Amino acid sequence: MTQPAATSPAEGASQPLLFTPLKLRNLTLPNRVVVSPMCMYSAQNGLANDFHLAHLGQFALGGAGLIFTEAAAVSPEGRISPEDLGLWTDEQIVPLGHVTDFVHRYGGLIGVQLAHAGRKASTYAPWRGRGAVPAEAGGWQVIGPSDTAYNVYYPQPVAMTVDDIRRVTSDFAAAARRALVAGFDVVEIHAAHGYLLHQFLSPLANTRTDEYGGSFENRVRFLLEVVRAVRTTWPTHLPLFVRVSATDWAEGGWDLDQTVQLAGLLRFEGVDVLDVSSGGLTPLQQITPGPLYQVPFAARVKQEVPDLRVMAVGMIDTPAQAEQVLEEGAADLIALARAFLRDPHWPQRAAAEFGLKPTLPDVYARAGW
């Protein structure tokens, strides 16, 4: 077995922060480069297949420090699309185990993102259509904190009862238990991008008047209960991530101040890394994206909650940009998405650009750098 993520400095070269290890509980990441969760819409009945093995396996061969799967739904109704990956049944464990075995065989580490889409469920994959999937095409009734749809093209949700909230909380815990059996090293809870847990956080989507709506303390209650349930199931020696949207980019919505306050609560509940993204909650959002545009959100969390590790994501494309974020102390980890789709060997190329000698899998060693 080789460890393609490892690098050794060439003569006279210093070790960039991007290629320094990071210890999270009993797990040590060999570098700070993370494959961000990316929806692939390529599963059937939630089952991983050869595509997922090839897609995720290439990142282990390419030297990523940690690889995340796409969002895996914790219940059938929690899928974004009918083609989403899932971990709501034991039948889904073995196919994912083939993926984790391959990644581990080549020295990689892999995490799974657990998710529920809430009112943004039962929609088409981007290249298959727009908006709600009708029942005759495999769609289903969706749920949310309230009965307001994301927009006129999306399904009309049914407001969740307290029993529904407890059921979904149990679904997250059960999915984390299956993730352990499947061989994952990390679990991430998806509370961003306008999906169910984010919907409860934001007053733009959550108009409840019970103990899960209204005040900040009430709106964060569901997420904290999910984190506690997962942390009870997920072993204490393995790290737990949570992905959040730092802001809704819309007046009256979830914002950075609330994110910082939430970060402190999540650290207390046993979360090791906050994965800081933004947006996705409302079509009213006003975003002007650009290189590193979300990094200031991660930096603020890291500054105000210094004992919580932070991962930055969003249009971080080049090795120089990634290193800059780390050097400025804005984050501890760098998550890449489109950059990895363009170049699965991004970490090895980055190492070469920094004057390091990448350690390649034996089967690729003759390629050199």
UniProtKB/TrEMBL annotation:
Transmembrane segments: none annotated. The keyword Metal-binding does not apply. InterPro entries: Aldolase_TIM, OxRdtase_FMN_N, YqjM-like. It comes from the Bacteria. Keywords: Flavoprotein, FMN, NADP, Oxidoreductase. Pfam families: Oxidored_FMN. The keyword Cell cycle does not apply. Residues 18-352 form the NADH:flavin oxidoreductase/NADH oxidase N-terminal domain. Its cofactor is FMN. PANTHER family: NADPH DEHYDROGENASE C23G7.10C-RELATED. This is NADPH dehydrogenase.
